[in-house]
Amino acid sequence: MKVKTDVEKAVEVDAYILKASGLVKEKRGYNALLNLLQSGILMNDRLGMPDTMELCKVLIHLKFDYEFIPNGVKLKDNSKVNYYNKVMYPPKPEVNTERIYQNKHDRRLSVGKEESGTRHWGNQIMASKKDSEYGMDTFFATKS
User: Fold this and answer.
1) How would you class 65 by CB atoms within 10 Å of its CB: exposed for 0-12, middle for 13-18, buried for 19 or more?
2) Residue 4 burial (C-beta neighbours within 10 Å; 0-12, 13-18, 19+)
3) Which among 64, 78, 92, 106 has the fewest CB atoms less than 10 Å away?
4) Is 137 exposed, middle or buried (0-12, 13-18, 19+ CB in 10 A)?
5) Are 21 and 30 in contact (CB under 8 A)?
């Protein structure tokens, strides 16, 4: 597997962000987002303050790092590489293959299996049913 450079990652993030934003290509919001991703800065003059704030809501929803500057918005340093590594392709969690038992009940393999020297609930039901069928419950009854 070929390891991607930061430039290749940035290009992939740009395409992902533009598609995931849900903005229409012909509209000025899409063009403003494209401008922000390419230049790294977006001045309020381009969209106006209310629409710039709406664009920031899109960036927040996509979990993309940016910061406010006087009269605009700027991408944080390495925001594209961080987005690639944390959101697009997060590291796989380590799987602990060693099973740790917390108590006796966790050691049961499945329903119906028994541990040595113990009767499982299914066996206890069958044993009590057999005892009542053969009159064993009257045998243990107290004398009156």
Assistant:
1) middle
2) middle
3) 92
4) exposed
5) yes
